[in-house]
Amino acid sequence: MENKLDVFRRELVDVQGVPLFWSIAEKWAQVQSFEAWPDDLLISTYPKSGTTWISEILDLIYNNGDAEKCHRDAIYKRVPFMELIIPGFSNGLEQLKNMPSPRLVKTHLPVQLLPSSFWKYDCKMIYVARNAKDVAVSYYYFHQMAKMHPEPGTWEEFLDKFMAGKVSFGSWYDHVKGWWEKRKDYRILYLFYEDMKEDLRSEIQKLLKFLEKDMPEETVNKILYHSSFNVMKQNPNANYTTLTKEEMDHSVSPFMRKGISGDWKNQFTVAQYERFEEDYEEKMKNSSLKFRSEI
């Protein structure tokens, strides 16, 4: 048995041109052959784009706003991270095998790496996208505390890696654009983190319509309350404090750090901003996808 700590801080491994954790790459055949069920709901995001937030909202919707039911376990057990395999710590594929239907399934995979069974069964999917600059900042702090990632280096070094797509799950640009295009052909509800921050009630209404569910206003109000940043930050079943310090060290940076839009302004220098914007324009010029960098 390898030393448990040897599984962390290792270099990423390319899978079809996308950098992934070494342990996912090793078990890639198992990930690819994952068998979705027709009533699975897939939650897809690029990392640090509101994944835990949308997962908590959907678990609340699936449990009709009953917060007690949503306290049954940690979010990463209620909504398993399908492709995450860390020997001795986590195996999303095994977790999902043992879950009752209907399952909520989380992925960070870019659209071209998603197991084909999701397309075969035309599963409903919800994608949440967040503006690139806030994602880069959040991902930098996440790398510091979440040990399955390689060491991030300095902010300047990390920003270079992020812009080049040399971080786990690859290029943010390819990720958001790939899922945006795919929504034209499949049942994908594409949401924006900034819209959720601005008016969560109307985004929840979109979710309910997409899921063909009716809910009284009183239940929606409960969901709004229990999925608010401050309540989730205090909720051990949502804030990842139930993981070991080897996996995530909250003393370095909390998993739920700020949860705001526009925090990039506290991190980017003027020179970094200008370089980033120029690169962004080039990479996004042929896409109809538009983001707000603050609200």
From TrEMBL:
Gene transcribed to yield this protein: LOC101714997
Family the UniProt entry places it in: Belongs to the sulfotransferase 1 family.
Location relative to the cell: Cytoplasm
Segments crossing the lipid bilayer: none
Residue ranges occupied by any Sulfotransferase domain in the UniProt entry: 38-287
EC number: 2.8.2.-
Gene Ontology terms for molecular function: aryl sulfotransferase activity
Pfam families to which the protein is assigned, alphabetical: Sulfotransfer_1
Name of the protein in its database record: Sulfotransferase
Main subcellular location: cytoplasm
One of the GO BP terms on file: sulfate assimilation
Lineage of the organism: Eukaryota, Metazoa, Chordata, Craniata, Vertebrata
